[in-house]
Amino acid sequence: MCDRYSRYVIGCKCQPNQQFKGTLRSCKKLMRYHGLPEVIRVDNGSPFASGSLGRLLRLSVWWIEQGIRVEFTTPGSPQENGWHERTHLDLEAEAVRPPPANMRAQQKRFDRWRHEYNHDRPHEALDMLFPGEVYRPSSRRLGETDKIRYPEDYTVRQVSESGHFLIGGRSTSVWARSTTDAG
């Protein structure tokens, strides 16, 4: 996870997979320490997005519930997140290859790389400052966000984990294709 303004790498956690629970646990830990961002920009892969209507997966929904705006890049357009993609290339070249013996050794590499990247490597885009000199944690704290407020003329529906909600006593799915004519 990186701060787009300062280019500060907030966290880089070695995990056995990209499943929701582990990723959420890592996000919570980072956000308790660094605060909540206003916006999170993500690509369209798991665990961030799906190909379904709204592209939301549980992690993105959790972020929205925390008052974070989720910004998706256009599918197949990594250039929209070019700096972050470049950071991934640097990380892979400098801290992943060749692969270490185990996850603990990999995490040590990530931690060393992150410290060097944030505090020992000046960035042209930052007028040759280090990301650690520019970065400031968010003052927005995890667990202190307001409930989402909707205009009075909105009808608010509770959506189940399976994507269903009730309209007029009938179950409807957010994944169902619209039958209305947009024209």
TrEMBL record:
<dbReference type="InterPro" id="IPR001584">
    <property type="entry name" value="Integrase_cat-core"/>
</dbReference>
<dbReference type="InterPro" id="IPR036397">
    <property type="entry name" value="RNaseH_sf"/>
</dbReference>
<dbReference type="GO" id="GO:0015074">
    <property type="term" value="P:DNA integration"/>
</dbReference>
<dbReference type="GO" id="GO:0003676">
    <property type="term" value="F:nucleic acid binding"/>
</dbReference>
<dbReference type="Pfam" id="PF13683">
    <property type="entry name" value="rve_3"/>
</dbReference>
<protein>
    <submittedName>
        <fullName>Transposase</fullName>
    </submittedName>
</protein>
<dbReference type="InterPro" id="IPR012337">
    <property type="entry name" value="RNaseH-like_sf"/>
</dbReference>
<feature type="domain" description="Integrase catalytic">
    <location>
        <begin position="1"/>
        <end position="139"/>
    </location>
</feature>
